[in-house]
Amino acid sequence: MMSPRKASVIVPTYRRPDLLRELLTSLSSQQTEYDFEVIVVNDDPEDNLSALELEFSDISVKVINLSEDHGRSIARNTGVRASSGDIIIFLDDDMTVVDGFITGHMDAHVHPRTAVVGNLVSAPEYARDPLARYIERQGAKKREPGAKLPPRCFRTGNGSLSRQLFQDVGMFDESFRTYGEDLDLAMRLNYKGAEFVFAEDAISYNHQDPDFDDMMEKLREWGRYTLPIFKKTHPEFTRDIWVDLGDPIEIGRESLSISLKKIGLRLVLTRPFYAVARLVYRCKWLGDALFPVIDFMRLFIYLGAYRESLKD
Fold first, then answer.
1. CA distance 73 to 91
2. How confident is the model at residue 94 (pLDDT cuts 50, 70, 90)?
3. Max CA distance (Å), the chain
4. Among 66, 192, 230, 286, whose CB has the most other CB atoms within 10 angstroms?
């Protein structure tokens, strides 16, 4: 049985001072028996945020101002190195947390190999937006009751693990400059025998505007630059999300069923179908019925970007 003593909340930030203040204000309202500190890693060299240390001295905020934009992996690793807690909690700067957040994470750490998935909830201002609801219901909330939580549910927008486990897997891969560094970490945690658990009481609200075009652009970047790396390092994950079906068709050199699946996917994932899906997506009144439409558009974007990478 593990008895965690202190939490270090690591928050990378880039040009979101107002949202960051809201997050720190919510952390200052935590009523918990656990000691915790907050490490803010500012990735914007043009904006010194050191004044926040005095403004939020009640929760022991430490600000690290980086000399240049290094990206999320380096920022988070830098924050962890400067921290002192035995449990590391990762948060994004566009979130606020409810009372019980720290306790929810800390209580979930029952053994050294626990990796905790927090409860990410859409902010009240976006509660009726289909895309916000779609994002909220992914991951841990999508699994069947009693099913084992897969590593892909672990996200650094609201997740925690022991310092020792984080160091054992080599921390974040600092070569990542595109999206996917948290999933890469989660897969390496899985290889080390981590047990992923869902902490329902560790609630954070995501205040990022649910921007569909922004999501698609990130997926395009992820498909073109991150998935080719994952195909080599985490092949079991890429098979789960159909990346193998984006590879060239090799009739006679692969099973007929695989060839047919590849052909079928190419027939469906075409621009005319995508254009229709975009039109349907405008019918926001359809609510949760739009979830399969969003699934289709996400697959179209990241698989198309992956196939483009094969031409390089």
1. 13
2. very high
3. 68
4. 230
Give me the domains of the chain, ranges plus CATH numbers: 6-206 (3.90.550.10), 212-309 (no CATH)
Q: CA torsion, points 264, 266, 267, 268, in degrees to nearest 10?
A: 90
E strand residue ranges, the chain: 6-13, 35-42, 61-65, 87-91, 95-97, 114-122, 158-162, 195-206
Residue with tokens 């609200």: 205
Locus of tokens 């500190």: 37
Whether the predicted pLDDT of 3 surpasses 80: no
The whole-angstrom separation of Cα 13 and Cα 79 is 11
Residue 149 structure tokens: 């939580």
Look at residues 208, 215, 240 and name the one whose alpha carbon lies nearest to residue 294. 215
Q: Are 10 and 41 contacting, i.e. CB atoms less than 8 angstroms apart? A: yes
Q: Dump pLDDT digits (tens) for 28-44.
A: 999 999 999 999 999 88
Q: Which two tokens stand for residue 158?
A: 């609201």
Pairwise CA distance, residues 235 & 187, whole Å? 11
| Of residues 38, 26, 33, the one with CA closest to residue 5 | 33
Structure tokens at 95: 């979130």
DSSP assignment of 69-132 equals ---HHHHHHHHHHT---SEEEEE-TTEEE-TTHHHHHHHH--STTEEEEEEEEE-GGGTT-HHH
Q: Any idea which residue has 């658990």 for tokens?
A: 197
Asked if 164 contacts 112 with a C-beta cutoff of 8 angstroms, the reply is yes
Q: How confident is the model at residue 45 (pLDDT cuts 50, 70, 90)?
A: confident
